[in-house]
Design a protein that fits this description.
Strand content: 5-15%
Largest sheet: 2 strands, parallel
Shape: globular
Radius of gyration: 17 Å
Distance between the termini: 51 Å
Structural class: mainly alpha
Number of helices: 5
Number of strands: 2
Order of helices and strands: HHHEEHH
Length: 108
């Protein structure tokens, strides 16, 4: 996998890239199925009606990951970058989180 190092984005730590290269397609697919698809995140969020939720999505992420949750207690924020907006654009991501937390404190 050293030959593919040139495709590694600069914001991805070497340890993460090294770990990723140790997996086969089958193991990655199984992890995706078990961790992402096996957890009922959408239905769970829709059951939570009173707790404020911040839903951050990356402008360049795929359509499925950019889904907004249209619910009174959910604040949807579209940020620059893709799925790893915290690594790609840490300042705007942290700023959105800080604004969300500040609004929560001022409303309590």
């Amino acid at each position: 996998m050293r030959a593919f190092r040139f495709v590694k984005p600069p914001y991805v730590p070497d340890d993460v890239f090294r770990d990723y290269t140790r997996h086969s397609w089958k193991s990655l697919a199984q992890t995706f199925d078990r961790v992402l698809l096996g957890v009922p995140g959408g239905p769970l969020v829709r059951q939570i009606r009173d707790v404020p939720i911040l839903n951050l999505t990356g402008r360049n992420d795929d359509e499925i990951a950019r889904r907004a949750v249209e619910q009174r207690n959910v604040q949807n924020v579209l940020l620059p970058g893709g799925h790893l907006m915290l690594l790609e654009h840490p300042d705007s991501t942290v700023g959105a989180i800080e604004r969300f937390l500040s609004e929560g404190r001022s409303n309590s």
